[in-house]
Design goal:
alpha/beta; 26 helices
């Protein structure tokens, strides 16, 4: 018995379209069956929806995947990667049948989850549930901000910068808390260019979602302020893939410009496979030989063949290229008219597309006078305000901590619908200051989405200890190489009285462990300015700027032996040279503890010990330098070394070597003023001096050292 054909009379699907949709189903089954693992069920049942988007709904051009005017598609249900891969193949993005056959194998263009920069046509790496939909909010926000930069006067829907962001999301996506955070922001922001389709199939890895997921999701999204619709393909008791109804819902969503749109789509996973439809057995494993055979039989395919695509099907679906070229040509007419009418804005666009900074932009960076103590968070705020006029692409805000993070550019309006302005923050839909609310995880995902949209540089701030809440999004940004900027303040026990719940101890080490993430902890105000400069000049991955709450001294650059702060760009540099030029011992510090190294050097030099001070704001950037430079800063023959940092020492032992010593904090903090905490926990000048002498003794001992990391401890620091 053949499966019932999708109902798509209004959309205008022919028998060839229906055959193409069924081809999608058998390709999904074949691909997972061949590799032996994967997620076939959702790709099978979502075949009509994905085909509708790529062939009938979205404005895109497979011949130019980076076309500025394209709609964006995000598969938040990244485990169902075949849902996207097969459409990319059919549409003509460069994937071929052999790529589908190589699913999830070494070197293939079709990894287990869609990966940005890996597969042409994939806008973002997805897989960790919730990240795709949450980052899509950032895509939509970026589109609106860019519209404000380039074409704010145009009527809605008439600008070459108007487009939609489409998302396919799963039950799992909506169970992850990050989507609740991000969806709430989207509703507040009234992002009318965002359309999410929820595949409501009631199945997860553990089976029926009734065991864990029972709220009324549509009402939930209605409460967030979204425009909501529901399309039920199970309505009436007989499963009918009513593509016309879904298409009508999408078209209605496109008309709603003052709210994001949420379309619930009730499906049966793996339909029409004979025995595994509507079961978790089709969710995360191959169907099995008999089930694949049965699926092909019910769809009218030859069960003895695999990866069988009729020539007329691929010829038909590849017409997406022709349609894409035509759509782009039509768009280009309005785009060229815009360029002619807006030469200055066109020049800005060209600069941003090229990821270039304006000439002499760095001259706007503030220079801080020596002798005055300034918190690096405050210095960062001054940098942002100074750069506002010269870098319109730079924008951002905080997770409800703007006054503490110093993330608000002076005089800049908020990015918010005008009617949501408050007496503290006035704004408009094209504003600049972002308000994430107390939603750190969503902030991280949204920053990725904004950056991936392509033209602007966003930043987001919170307390460093709350970077824990962001870690999932930060790791994914690092995996993708997305140059998002995180402003993490209150970076140590130096924040003081708020106590150990707010005092980061392990965070520097934990975040340094993420490949592709650069952690930058500047020592003073001028290092902070140079940290921003180096960060904005880079596009190869995210950067976490780790800043102090407490004031720290501003060193006299170029005087009294102090080096320029420009060495920040190399990750570590000689801040103060040893009096003899050849050091007996090297003191290495970051952030607020560099001052302790400077003070310790005075005492050691007075005792006749030639001492070099190295400021090492970014171990990641330092590791990128060539061996000659690294040797010039930390020569191998100087084995006496001391690191000083108010956190656990785990990330320092490779640099310190067997004779090195760490002045660190291997337990939680306590509630007291920061001066007391540094004294009581032994992060002092005297401790650095003692560690230097101990390291010198160890370096002179011919017996290899056995120094290991200190044991860590639970409990509040003043109760150790």
């Amino acid at each position: 018995m053949n499966a019932k054909a999708p109902l798509a009379q209004q959309v205008g699907w022919t028998e060839l379209d229906r055959k193409a949709v069924d081809t999608v189903r058998v390709l999904a089954a074949d691909a997972v069956e061949k590799v032996g693992n994967g997620h076939p069920g959702t790709a099978i049942s979502l075949a009509p929806a994905a085909y509708l988007l790529y062939q009938n709904v979205m404005r895109h051009n497979p011949a130019d995947p980076h076309w500025l005017g394209r709609d964006r598609f995000i598969l938040s249900a990244g485990h169902s990667s075949l849902t996207q891969y097969i459409q990319l193949y059919l549409s003509g993005y460069g994937l071929e049948l052999s790529d589908l056959e190589a699913l999830r194998t070494w070197g293939s263009a079709t990894p287990g989850h869609p990966e940005y920069k890996h597969t042409t046509g994939v806008e973002i790496t997805t897989g960790p549930l919730g990240q795709g939909l949450s980052s899509a909010v950032g895509f939509a926000m970026a589109a609106r901000r860019e519209r404000g930069l380039f074409d704010p006067e145009a009527a809605p829907g008439t600008s070459p910068f108007d487009h939609f962001v489409y998302v396919l999301a799963s039950d799992g996506d909506l169970q992850e808390g990050v989507t609740s955070e991000a969806s709430s922001i989207a509703g507040t922001q009234k992002l009318g260019n965002l359309i999410a389709i929820w595949d409501d199939n009631h199945i997860s890895i553990e089976g029926d979602t009734e065991i864990a997921f029972t709220e009324d999701v549509v009402k939930r999204y209605e409460a967030y302020g979204w425009h909501v619709q529901f399309v039920d393909w199970t309505e009436g008791g007989e499963y009918t893939e009513n593509v016309d109804a879904l298409y009508a819902a999408i078209e209605e969503a496109k008309k709603v410009t003052d709210r994001p749109s949420f379309i619930g789509l009730r499906t049966i996973i793996a339909w029409p496979s004979p025995t595994k439809q509507n079961t978790h057995g089709s969710h995360g494993s191959k169907l099995g030989t008999d089930e694949v055979r049965g699926l092909k039989e019910v769809l009218g395919f030859d069960p003895s063949t695999s990866f069988d695509v009729a020539p007329e099907v691929i010829e038909h679906t590849r017409k997406a290229v022709e349609r894409g070229n035509a759509a782009q040509a039509e768009w280009d007419t309005s785009y060229q008219a815009w360029r002619a009418a807006n030469p200055d804005r066109a020049a800005l666009l060209d600069r941003l597309v090229a990821h270039e900074l304006p000439a002499d932009w760095a001259e706007q960076l503030p220079v801080f006078e020596a002798g005055k103590s300034v918190a690096t968070r405050a210095a960062s705020g001054e940098v942002l305000s100074a750069l506002a006029s010269v870098l319109p692409e730079l924008w951002g805000g905080s997770a409800d901590l703007a006054g503490s993070n110093n993330t608000t550019m002076k005089g800049e309006p908020s990015f918010i619908p005008a009617e949501r302005s408050t007496h503290e923050f006035a704004g408009n839909e094209f504003g600049r200051t972002l308000h994430f609310g107390i939603r750190e995880h969503a902030m991280g995902a949204i920053l990725s989405g904004i950056t991936l949209h392509g033209l602007t540089r966003p930043y987001g701030g919170t307390f460093f200890t709350f970077s824990d809440y962001m870690r999932g999004a930060v790791r994914l940004a690092s995996l993708m190489g997305v140059p998002a900027i995180y402003v993490w303040t209150h970076d140590s026990i130096g924040l003081g009285e708020d106590g150990p719940t707010h005092q980061p101890v392990e965070h520097l080490t934990a975040l340094r462990a993420i490949p592709g993430l650069a952690i930058v902890r500047p020592a003073d105000a001028n290092e902070t300015a140079q940290a921003w400069k180096a960060t904005l000049e880079r596009h190869d991955g995210p950067v976490g700027l780790v800043l102090t709450r407490q004031n720290v001294p501003t060193f006299p650059r170029g005087e009294q032996g102090f080096a320029s702060a420009e060495g920040v760009a190399k990750g570590a540099y000689v801040l103060l040279e040893a009096s003899s030029g050849t050091p007996d011992v090297i003191l290495i510090g970051t952030g607020s503890e560099v001052q302790l190294a400077v003070e310790a050097r005075e005492q050691l030099e007075a005792a006749g010990i030639a001492t070099r001070v190295v400021s090492a704001p970014s171990l990641e950037w330092f590791a990128e330098q060539d061996e000659a430079y690294r040797e010039s800063v930390l020569p191998k023959n100087v084995r006496a070394r001391v690191s000083v940092e108010a956190g656990i020492a785990l990330s320092w032992h490779k640099i310190l070597g067997e004779a090195g010593r760490a002045v660190s904090l291997e337990h939680y903090g306590a509630s007291a003023d920061y001066e007391t905490l540094y004294r009581e926990f032994g992060i002092t000048t005297e401790a650095v001096v003692a560690a230097a002498k101990e390291s010198l003794a160890a370096a002179g001992d011919s017996t290899p050292g056995t120094e290991s990391a200190a044991p860590t401890a639970s409990g509040t620091g003043d109760q150790q």
